[in-house]
Design a protein that fits this description.
The protein has about 140 residues and is α+β, with helices and mostly antiparallel strands. It is built from 3 helices and 6 strands.
Length: about 140
């Protein structure tokens, strides 16, 4: 099995709380950053999505905070999409330090919103497959 898509992220001092830990809300920003990087790596821009009248939405996120992150820590943020039947898909993500220590794990449910109808499209996998120059980034 291939390694999941990942992007490097360095924890910046202004992202930490009074205890010196990465602020809990910033973990979500790191996950979002990795998802957009994967979408772009697959060859899809925000303009491409808008031209098709769709946009990705996150419907649910579960985060397990396992180890602290501090200013200056280097991390890799992974992202893997999994499609089933229906309107939604799952995303599995991990924030890991270079020594392999897992700082956080994410499980999210997403979909593609029809920007005009304001409803999820019936088969998001087909939109990603059609728009991507490399749908393999989505496991397609």
């Amino acid at each position: 099995m291939a390694e999941p898509f990942s992007v490097p992220v360095t924890v910046r001092g202004y992202e930490t709380d009074i205890l010196g830990h990465l602020n809990q809300s910033v973990y979500l920003q790191y996950a979002e950053h990795a998802r957009w990087c994967l979408i772009e790596a697959a060859g899809i821009s925000q303009a491409d999505l808008i031209s098709k009248g769709v946009g990705p939405v996150v419907l649910e996120t579960t985060i397990r905070y396992l180890r602290e992150l501090r200013a200056g820590d280097e991390t890799e943020v992974t992202c893997a999409f999994a499609f089933g039947e229906g309107k939604t898909y799952r995303m599995q993500q991990t924030i890991r330090k270079p020594d392999g220590t897992v700082a956080a794990e994410f499980t999210a449910v997403g979909g593609l919103l029809d920007l005009k109808e304001r409803r999820l499209v019936a088969d998001p996998r087909e939109y990603f497959r059609a728009l991507a120059s490399d749908p393999g980034f989505f496991g397609l």
